[in-house]
Design brief:
The longest helix has 14 residues. The chain is built from 15 helices and 29 strands. The protein is α/β, with parallel strands linked by helices. Helix content is 26%, strand content 23%.
């Protein structure tokens, strides 16, 4: 299995001969679930909501002797670029969309009750708008066992485990959040909850996705379980539902609109994009691109980055929610130059290729190349290298208390977590500026004092420290271990007063 994805195969109990199977692929860095449904009788497969890098579907289909003939999008996703174009081009699959979807590419438009059937598999469309106008769910029947009741329903972003899809994303162009919330209420109350309780529920996202606010870490459930435990499926009026599902939603990254639009379009495949963008660059080439406005993205671990990096580079490490933060912090219309480790571990993926591919997953095809040799290219150019100071929690406490005589100016502590995280507990006296607001609000940070940034554990603060240095701030420090380390050391904390 590639390091770039996690694969979880799930199938229902069967008799001796396997007739059909639903296989789930879970991509942790995007909290995204996609599916391949296979029929043993006809050796046919259908893929639902694929990620843009499709090699795992092709490999599994080949291993099982299946032909991928169909690809479904439950809606135009906003948080990633789907692989429907790639499966069409490489596997010859027919693209299927809901009847309200408007796309540039050729597809089969499907409405309530429309069916695709092969062997013992029946896929029936249920239009379930609400997260987006064109949203559909897909009922999956195992005809060898029960042709009257569905085995499962693939709910896209309409119904999650523990939540429902948010109706307020700007990706739903031309439709208001209120109108979508009305649609969502109808989709839930008149369609999905009327399915048999035993129906398996397979959503398109899990915990960590910004397409909802309370998604479970579980990736499969049943309609019956969701009717019991999902807050949004409890009996309530339309207005109560609309109020509860729109409240306290996380801030959506700017790239969501870009991706939702790109998923509607005819576009280049990921394979073609990477042929054009994955190219080695000399240090002089990188410096020239940087001078002309290119974004320099260093994807090494924060510890390595802070030990020494090219001046002006932004650090977003591959070992975290890389794609989501890259989409939040970078522009999709300016060139990106990648700096990665010089080579992957023995037998492992190439970090530069991994970084570029994962940018491609969110439609950032604007990569200009990568620095050949990584930081080794700067071995004799210390004038181009910048470092970021790190400070432990006990040392910061001493500094704030004025007991470190060698450090006269007390630092300003910047908490780059969300407002909700900060309110639940924070370093006493810290200033809360969420990471996505840091560039716009940098003027709020006193210019004459050292800066210590922190998040929960250190991933976001490494991004924040690199951004502050990129913007010209001096005296930037990163709190080792973040708020977790501060709390573990039993140092002074505060919480927002109860409202």
């Amino acid at each position: 299995m590639s390091l770039s994805h996690q694969l979880l195969a799930l199938s229902h109990p069967i008799a001796e001969r396997l007739a059909m199977k639903i296989q789930q692929y879970y991509l942790a860095c995007l909290s995204h679930a996609s599916y391949m449904i296979t029929d043993e009788k006809t050796k046919t497969a259908a893929v639902v909501d694929p990620q843009r890098d499709i090699d795992q579907y092709l490999a599994d289909a080949k291993a099982g002797g299946y032909t991928i003939k169909h690809v479904f999008l439950t809606h135009f996703h906003a948080d990633f670029i789907a692989g429907h174009i790639e499966l069409r081009d490489r596997a010859g699959a027919t693209i299927h969309l809901g009847s309200r979807a408007q796309a540039e590419f050729t597809c089969v438009s499907m409405k309530d009750g429309d069916v695709v059937e092969f062997g013992d598999v029946r896929l029936e469309i249920m239009e379930t708008p609400g997260h987006t106008p064109e949203g559909i769910s897909i009922l999956v029947y195992d005809l060898a066992k029960n042709g009257k009741e569905p085995l499962a329903v693939l709910t896209g972003d309409t119904l999650f485990i523990g939540d429902v899809g948010r109706p307020d994303l700007l990706a739903s162009i031309g439709v208001t959040a209120d109108e979508l919330a009305d649609m969502l209420y109808d989709s839930i109350t008149t369609k999905l909850v009327t399915l048999p309780d035993a129906t398996l529920v397979y959503p398109a996202h899990g915990a960590g996705s910004m397409c909802g606010k309370a998604l479970s870490k579980e990736t499969v459930s049943t309609i019956g379980e969701q009717k019991k435990f999902n807050y949004a499926l409890q009996p309530m009026s339309r207005e109560e539902f609309k109020t509860i599902v729109t409240a306290d939603q996380p801030e959506a990254p700017d790239y969501f609109v870009h991706d939702a639009i790109l998923n509607r379009k005819e576009r280049v495949s990921l394979e073609e994009s990477m042929r054009n963008t994955l190219k080695p660059l000399s240090l002089d080439d990188v410096l020239a691109l940087q001078t002309s406005g290119a974004q320099v993205l260093d994807v090494r671990d924060g510890l390595d980055f802070e030990g020494g990096h090219l001046k002006g580079a932004l650090n977003i490490a591959l070992n975290g929610k890389y794609a989501t933060w890259a989409g939040s912090m970078l522009a999709h219309d300016r060139p990106i130059v990648v700096i990665a480790e010089a080579g992957g571990p023995s037998g492992g993926d190439d970090p530069a290729a991994e970084a570029v591919m994962r940018l491609g997953r969110i439609g950032f095809d604007n990569v200009g190349g990568y620095l050949a040799g990584g930081m080794n290219a700067l071995a004799s150019r210390d004038d181009l290298v910048e470092r970021t100071e790190r400070v432990t929690a006990p040392a910061l406490a001493e500094w704030l208390g004025g007991s470190r005589a060698e450090l006269t100016a007390k630092p300003v502590v910047i908490d780059v977590r969300t407002a909700a995280e900060h309110a639940s507990g924070h370093v006493t006296g810290s200033l809360n500026i969420p990471l996505t607001h840091l560039a716009k609000r940098i003027g709020e940070i006193p210019g004459e004092r050292p800066i210590v940034v922190h998040c929960e554990g250190g991933y976001r603060s490494a991004i924040a420290a690199s951004l502050l240095q990129h913007l010209g701030r001096a005296g930037v420090h990163d709190l080792v271990g973040g708020f977790k380390a501060w709390s573990a050391a039993k140092l002074p904390t505060a919480a927002a007063a109860a409202g």
